[in-house]
Every structure is written in C-alpha cells, then in structure tokens.
C-alpha cells in the first residue's frame, strides 16, 4: 500500500474531546502499514480548543497538517477545503468524531484502490446506528431514491470514502450539503466504485456538529435533490432542456396564433381575445429566448471542453 501517497482528510468542528485520539489513531495506522502521505485536518472555525490542540499536535507530528477556516463552512465546505489542500495520490475522508475507527477503515478503503483497481471506495456502516429514528429513515429513503432515479445501488452515501486524486478534477464542485451526492457524481462520470462494510462506533464524547437535525433537513434536502437531478440530466446538454421547452412554447404560441387567425377570418374581430393575444406573444417570445439560452449553454460547454 505504500506505493501511493495518501492524504487522510478530517473535517473538525468543536471536536476537542476526540481530535487528539483521532490524530493518534491515524498516525499509528500510517506507521503500522508504512504509508506515505499526510493527515490533513480542517478546523471549521471551532469555538472550543480544537484549533489550539491541532496546532500543538502539528508541532510534534510531522504527518499532521492543519487548515483553519476563518468562517464555518459546514461539512461539505470543510471537505472541499481539505480536498483542495491535499497532496496525496489517494484521498481518504474520515470523520474526526471517531464513529469510524481509522485503524480498521484506512486499510479497508485503500486495498480495493491499490490492489483491485477501483477509483472510488465508500463505506457501509455496520452495527448500531443513530437512535434518531427520523434521521435513520430519511437516510434509507434518500438511498432508495438515488437507486431508483439514478440506478446507483449503494447503501450509505454519506459515509467514509477513499478515491484517486484525479476523480476530483472530473466531477462537479460540491456545494453546501452536497457531500451526500459525491458518489453519485463519481458514478455519473463512469468511475468504478466499490462498497466495503465498516464497523460503526456510536459517538461517546461530544455531540454532532455538522448538519441540521429532524424535520429542518427536509426542505433543503428536497431542493438539493432537484438541483442535482437537473445537473446530472442537463448540465452537459443544456439544449435538451432549454431547446425542448422552447420548442413546446413556440408550438403552443403558433397553435394559439392560428386559432386567432381563423377566428379573425370567420367573425372578423378578435378584440375580445386580447388575453389570448398576449398569451400567444408571450409563448412565442419566451420560446425564442429559451432556444437562445440553450444555444448559449451549448457554446459554454464547448468552450469549457476546449479549455480542459
């Protein structure tokens, strides 16, 4: 496994009770398996002593690199910062709350990439999960929807991950709370994904700091699902959306226009149809605009491809 350099990325927000043990366990795993690389912890604007503990550890542990966010960016934002600063050929994302055991999970995540040729590996939690019933079942529903709409059959999209560095340059930038769709974007790009079972250890110290709980998750989750669906379906072919919608609008406008023309010929007056006249004009002009948007989108896609 030491033929590749490895970056272990861990977002941390107010994890003073866990961060020292996390760094120690990851360091011990690096030494046990003779791994090359770094431990990169992103302090997401912690308000406790997490930042000071990390800085002290970094002075003693040459493997450890610390990045401090000046504002709280949330889990996805902290992950993005970590990925941007990571230098390893293989990047592993682990939580710093010790719900994942680095000593067990780093080898499990690395082996399929190093020995079996997979580009992306994701964990599947085994054992006692959160007692929050709403959170547990909302995750089940989310995983089902992903499998149904996108044919990606994974059990635990929000859990630990490892991937080759080049994966990052070929997927969409992860926005707020889009870490759950990371594997979706990777699968969409055609990378080989393997799911491995990992033990889950309920948090024993502190409380979860990332993300909303309960019903507050629903509106944002629904919006994210719709936006991601749109990205996957149309981002690479904007004309399929804007062009189709534009043609439908223009066709309806033409139909209404023909109706008004026939009405004008038969009864000689269409003054009482003014709302329909405006509707016809709106449909035709909107359809033309949508077609133009589609053409501009196609040109942007072409320019982006040439730039890459």
Describe the 3D structure.
The chain is an alpha/beta fold and 308 residues long. It has helices spanning 19-32, 50-60, 74-85, 102-116, 133-150, 182-188, 217-234, 238-267, 274-307; strands at residues 5-12, 36-43, 64-68, 90-93, 120-126, 161-164, 193-199. It has 2 domains: 5-234, Spore Coat Polysaccharide Biosynthesis Protein SpsA, Chain A, CATH 3.90.550.10; 238-307. The protein is built from 9 helices and 7 strands, in the order βαβαβαβαβαβαβααα. Helix 1 (19-32) packs across helix 4 (102-116). The longest helix is centred in the C-terminal third of the chain and has 34 residues, at 274-307. It starts with a strand and ends with a helix.
Tally of alpha and pi helices: 9
- CATH class of the largest domain reads Alpha Beta
Task: Give the count of structural domains.
Answer: 2
Q: How does the helix and strand content classify structurally?
A: alpha/beta
Spatial sequence of strands, sheet with the most strands: 3-2-1-4-6-5-7
Order of helices and strands: EHEHEHEHEHEHEHHH
User: Into which percentage range does the β-strand content fall?
Assistant: 5-15%
Instruction: Please name the fourth-level CATH homologous superfamily of the largest domain.
Output: Spore Coat Polysaccharide Biosynthesis Protein SpsA, Chain A
User: Mind telling me which CATH architecture of the largest domain this is?
Assistant: Alpha-Beta Complex
How far apart the termini lie comes to: 31 Å
Principal-axes shape call: elongated
């Amino acid at each position: 496994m030491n033929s590749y350099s490895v970056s272990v990325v861990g977002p941390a927000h107010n994890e003073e009770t866990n961060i020292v043990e996390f760094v120690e366990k990851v360091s011990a795993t690096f030494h046990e398996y003779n791994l090359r690389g770094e431990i990169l912890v992103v302090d997401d604007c912690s308000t406790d002593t997490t930042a000071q503990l990390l800085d002290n550890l970094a002075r003693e542990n040459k493997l450890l690199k610390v990045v401090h966010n000046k504002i709280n960016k949330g889990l996805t934002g902290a992950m993005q910062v970590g990925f941007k600063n990571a230098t390893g050929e293989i990047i592993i994302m682990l939580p710093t709350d010790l719900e994942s055991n680095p000593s067990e999970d780093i080898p499990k995540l690395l082996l399929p990439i190093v020995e079996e040729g997979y580009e992306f590996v994701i964990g599947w939690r085994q054992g006692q999960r959160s007692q929050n019933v709403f959170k547990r079942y909302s995750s089940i529903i989310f995983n089902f929807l992903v499998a149904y709409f996108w044919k990606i059959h994974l059990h635990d999209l929000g859990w630990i991950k490892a991937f080759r560095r080049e994966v990052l340059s070929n997927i969409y930038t992860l926005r707020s709370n889009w870490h759950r769709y990371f594997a979706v974007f990777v699968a969409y790009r055609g990378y080989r994904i393997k799911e491995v079972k990992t033990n889950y250890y309920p948090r024993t110290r502190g409380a979860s700091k990332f993300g909303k709980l309960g019903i507050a998750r629903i509106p944002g989750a629904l919006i994210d699902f719709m936006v991601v669906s749109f990205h996957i379906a149309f981002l690479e072919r904007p004309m399929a959306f804007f062009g189709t919608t534009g043609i439908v609008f223009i066709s309806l406008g033409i139909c209404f226009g023909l109706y008004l023309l026939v009405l004008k010929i038969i009864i000689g007056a269409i003054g009482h149809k003014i709302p329909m006249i405006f509707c016809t004009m709106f449909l035709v002009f909107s359809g033309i605009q949508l077609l133009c948007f589609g053409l501009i989108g196609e040109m942007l896609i072409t320019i982006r491809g040439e730039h890459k």
